[in-house]
Structures
1.
Amino acid sequence: MMRVNHTPPGDNTMTAPASPALIDDLVVANHILVNEGVLDGFGHISVRHDQDPSRFLIARSMAPGLVTAEDILQCDLDGQVHDAQGRRTYVERFIHSEIYRARPDVHAVIHSHSPAVIPFGVTGARLRPICHMSGFLGAQVPVFEIRHAAGESSDLLIRNQALGRALVESLGQASVALMRGHGNVVVGRSIQQVVFRAIYTESNARLQSEAMRMGDINFLTPEEAQATSNMNDEHLDRPWQVWKRQALQRSA
Ligand code: MN
């Protein structure tokens, strides 16, 4: 059963432990996302705590391809790590904390610099669903321009709550937002769904770039996007199982 935990600021304790299966899936997801070319030495995935919706689980600040269960930390919606034991998580944790605060429907978040997506954040070309695997992209994907919130000379990172809130405003109710000159953020209701979405966001960007060189693109309509997204949500476990096996084989 979910319960809301009102942790006073500065409290440095663990609440109820998260389920071991959830932690296992989070570890596996880190490895899948590296294996599938979404994360490299950078980027991160988090999941909302299954016993305490005011916290989320995320690895300590490290390369995602090396994450084990011992590296998973609990973080609250102010971006504070609990039971840190000297460990720190990512500077850009405010991407996660502010999305969980604003979107109760979201239970998993990925921030990546997945390469094929970058051109769509820096040109007039909008990322749109080109095939039935990426209907979750909706009508078109919003682009977050950090200059509006951080001025002309920032390092483009989401370093604080205010920048996290600005990003969340661009994201709105969408599944994906691009971050100009930096990367993207993908949200979902589960680890399996958000991993699926992050992999197919990268794939859609690759295919769309190719198709743009060939001519005008016949994109999915918003209705087709919704229908295909609903359809794919019924089959999230199938690709998850094969991605998991491949990632585990590779890291063995
Ligand atoms: Mn980043």
2.
Amino acid sequence: MPHHRRRWPVTEPVIDPREFRRVSGLFATGVTVVTTRIGDNVHGMTANAFTTLSLDPLLVIVCIDRRARMHPLIQEAGTFAVNFLHEGQEAVSRNFAGQPQESVADSLRFSEDDGAPIIIGSLASIRCAIHELIPGGDHEIVVGRVTALMCGDVGAHPLIYFGGGYRRLLVESEARHSAPDPFLNRKVRVYHEEWHG
Ligand code: FAD
């Protein structure tokens, strides 16, 4: 059957984009840095619009702002990596979101093989080749075919983004090194610094 891109009728509710950001920011995510390489130059960009898409074939999605420098670069390279940040990499996230951090510049290391650049020391990284580009309003939906998986320190905790700020998981001490499953393990919850003074 041919693939039709169906469109639904648009009703135009008046929604303030700032309100949309505030409400959608209540969906907690991890934080990634998407990296790509053109020749010897590595470019990275912080992104939380990441999700897995398909198991057969193995596909993931990242959404890239059309105005971002990353947008033409990732297409030129054709390959990219998604680096999941751990809770100690908040400065890395800020650095790749347009706030250069001296501490990061000194310590940042990328993989040196031919593949898409991995940020050494990340929680985990996924290498991809571009599978499909789908227009998504002011963003491009980049569908990546997974070509390699790297896992860092399995005991490390993720960096979390929620409500416009960075958060971390609080795991009660005895559960700290068991693999936390947020659906089965009640001891895992998002830790709000505000709630604990
Ligand atoms: P620039 O703004 O030029 O570069 C990004 C930053 O990375 C710059 O500070 C640059 O100095 C640094 N940098 C790049 N390469 C290197 C390198 N090799 N070594 C050292 N530093 C380097 N935008 C999206 O499009 N999609 C998202 O899903 C998304 N999610 C976000 C989530 C969070 C939590 C945050 C804070 C921002 C998010 N953004 C997202 C916004 C995006 O990260 C910024 O707009 C970013 O600055 C866009 O990057 P750019 O490609 O335009 O390049």
